[in-house]
Amino acid sequence: MKSILFRNEELWYLDSGSGPVVVLIHGFPLDHRMWAAQIPVLEKFCRVIAVDLPGYGRSALPHEPLSISGYSEAIAAIIAAEKIEKVTLVGLSMGGYVCWEFAAQFPEHVSRLIACNTRAAGDTLATAKARRLSAQYVRDKGTAALLADMLTRLIAPQTIDESPLVVANIQAIMQIASPESVSATLLALADRSDNRPLLPKLKFPILVVAGEFDVITPADEMRKMSTTLDHAKFTIVPECGHLPPMEQPDRFNEVLVNFLKNTRTQSE
Ligand code: MLT
Question: Could you please report the per-residue DSSP string of the chain?
């Protein structure tokens, strides 16, 4: 792992392999380890940068409030520090929100985008209100109740029944997240922008990946989102919920690698 100082706080990321740069951006409340099954496959033909977003993994929680645009600026700081021109962004759920934001703020640095189990819309008023209540609850009482509820929605019943090691790994990563980080992120999620108007403007190859049984970002909603993108392919990974890279790593990797190998761009 390497680190830079971003707004006076340590920002950590894994940097391995060589070739076109692929930046992996995790979901909430996980860290770069959610990509453990992708990194060894990608680093055979890509340079992989797997980030711990501020407040997660080894990266410090900033003193100022978190925001999705601040997360995007953190990715830009890593790219600037590494003197990288173009990247392929891969983001899952909250990581996908960061990808849209990055594409809005720094389009000149994006060559391709893989949006997994995510949406471009902001929160509805009701969702944002519930998140703010949860943020307060987590600050007062800790993360245990929120994480227990999230786990059942994050992964498919089949994963819970058949893959206890995967479940234990997801729990272990989530439990590392501090109540302060989780609470601050809930507020950032509630306040994020609606990036739907951005989508038709994106002119690079995009892959939209859904999980067959995802209840957080359902496959049908993702399919509809993909039709508003000019250059998108849409794929459903079978037999998983919101976390295909962890629940169905082989199937997810096949989809990811095929897309990366079939869309090589001049700029890389
Ligand atoms: C995530 O997986 O990152 C979260 O489910 C995002 C969200 O709650 O909107």
Answer: -EEEEETTEEEEEEEE--SSEEEEE--TT--GGGGTTTHHHHTTTSEEEEE--TTSTTSPPPSSPP-HHHHHHHHHHHHHHTT---EEEEEETHHHHHHHHHHHH-GGGEEEEEEES--SS---HHHHHHHHHHHHHHHHH-SHHHHHHHHHHHS-HHHHHH-HHHHHHHHHHHHHS-HHHHHHHHHHHHT----GGGGGG--S-EEEEEETT-SSS-HHHHHHHHHT-TTEEEEEESS--S-HHHHSHHHHHHHHHHHHHHT--TT-
